[in-house]
Specification:
It is a single chain. By secondary structure, the chain is mostly helical. Among the domains are: 70 residues, no CATH class; 92 residues, no CATH class; 56 residues, no CATH class. The chain contains 31 helices and three strands. It has a three-stranded antiparallel sheet, covered by helices on one side. β1 and β2 form a beta hairpin.
Length: 738
Amino acid sequence: MDEQRQQAYLTLINALLTCPSGEEGQTLQDNAELVDAGLVKTMAQVAEVLAERGDENGAQFLIGMANQLGELLGLSTSTATPEAQLDFLMQVLKTTSDSDVDPQVVYPLLQENLHLLDDNFARILYDWATAKLAELQPAQAKSIAIDIGNFSNLIQEFPLGSQATNQEIAITGYEVALTFFTCENHSKTWATLQNNLGAAYSDRIRGERAENIESAIASYQAALQIYTRDAFPSKWAMTQTNLGAAYRNRIRGERAENIELAIASFQSALEVYTRQAFPSQWALIQNNLGTVYYFRIRGEREENIELAIAFYQSALEVYTCEAFPSDWAMTKNNLGNAYSNRIRGERAENIESAIAFYQAALEVYTRDAFPSQWATTQNNLGAAYYDRIRGERAENIESAIASFQSALEVYTRDAFPSDWANTQNNLGTAYGDRIRGERAENIESAIASFQAAMAVYTRDAFPSDWAMTQNNLGNAYLERIRGEVAENIESAIASYQAALEVRTREAFPQNYIETQFNLGRAYRDAQQLDNAYDAFAAGIDTVEFQRVEISLGTANDADKQKLAEEWNKLYLNMIEVCLELADNTQAWEYIERSKTRNLIELLTSRSLYPDGEIPTQIKSQLQQLQQEILIEQRRLNQLQAAGEQKLLEKSITVEEIDYSHINQLRQRYNELYPYKPLKFDQLSPLIDKNTAIIEWYIFDDCFRAVIINDLTPQPPSQSPSFRRTEDASLLFHGRGRI
């Protein structure tokens, strides 16, 4: 096969992996000249690579596609004959028994006969074993069933050949053995087989991932009927550990509840797996607990991250670099992730800790020895350098770019499409903020990276990532120096509008606000002031409608301050647009709405609440609604995450998410909220002719005083003016630069 055609196969395979679900047939039809035995063979090879890299969904999809094409083309996926495979089955079962299940004896035999280990081998195992076990005397049948179970253990761990096929053979073997070993007659062996079957389903590449995990959970739970803590403490702890891992990865059910079940299983295992008696198992569970607490939904996010850090640090008491180098590096990387997102402590110090942990992990995770882990840690290190507060900003961004580019040496589009796209997006963000180098060239690099990411981040396959990258691309076009200014602005507007197709107010409220703000800026640059007004207004309405999530979110104080500054920019731009539209009244009203504690609170609190305090009943209701809103928001976030996971599994329909309940809660909160935005025409009852209101507002280049002093009703034709105090009821006085 020539190199050019091989590359064409790889390009087509990548197109199949990234095309919208349902369009695979059209993609193949458009490339009909490539649909042949060579494509089927290449699909199988790529599937193996994806499986080894952990992309089980992609591997499963390609295996299914290769099988379908093989049938359509009349291809045989194996050169083995059924007779040869049956003879080999007899040989390998005998070798397993004679060697006392020694992998050093069995694995060379498997390696010499890789061509016989295919899907048909699993079918021959099932047909022969079920028939044989039914006709033999119990003692003979038991011996064969034991050999089959032990062979299944070996093939499940066999590192060569097709990992997907090896798992299918193991599952077949366990299920056949379980037809002989029942819970009633051979309870201990039955429990062992159930635990092993659970492990095989947990690692299974083929089939629907969600269904495989359900099968694993069912097998582990079955094993625990026999493996009780009192009767089999170490096996009980082992199975509890496996069950916890399955719940951690579970797709079905409520994500928050699955994580709680994982925590409970891991903590149960620790009742037996103590540090003194089982140090390595204890350390493994400490690391696992760190991971589940890091992703925990229930409880306070701040406290969960602290617990995750504590568990990771406990694991490192056993996982030393000398004794467990790869486990040590894994835990160091996990600690880096936890410190990158830590809420407590000084943000700058947390990022320094994260960088140190990632750098430590890279001492073991070298490119040659652990290529995928090396790339993952390089990407994480790049993100930490990008967020770094200490050090020179220009140098930090250079370090981030270097790390992202290193990750892309392993994260290729063909082998790691989603990781490649994620790192391309990160690289684009870093180039967009780069200080060194020519600004125009940096922006071009950012645009190229964002466009590359969207080759994988399609709207159908990765909707939220697609929308994020569209937003980022819009920012790059808005800052672009090369090309026609008007055309760049139009490109930015188009990208923002595309992002808003996914970043809706209901599904991604804060992202919606961000993109509406960016869209408003683009409209301002295009002098489309009415459109800018509409975009800013939509963003502000959402900020105010979702005041609970914004004020009580899980971010640390520094992040909340940063968020507040972003929203202040939104109000500032709206005020400036109002002034550019010569709508002074609207400008004042948005000044008033922008304040944390606005004028209406000060002027009306006495009349609303004479004691100056919100009544306890109202305050209690507001607090209850706050909690209900945050809980519902977390639930919706879980559904969004689960939906995107399902999109990665071809042919799975994602149900529409219902946002009506959370919107009802927000509406009730805002109805109870005592302070409403003040309209300009509502000022009359609050001040008289002898009263003037003076307010200050800070703009980017100056600050201005707003003077309101004459609210005597005016003829309809009159409106506030900037020019004359005697004729105006609202004035903006420019002041010196800050």
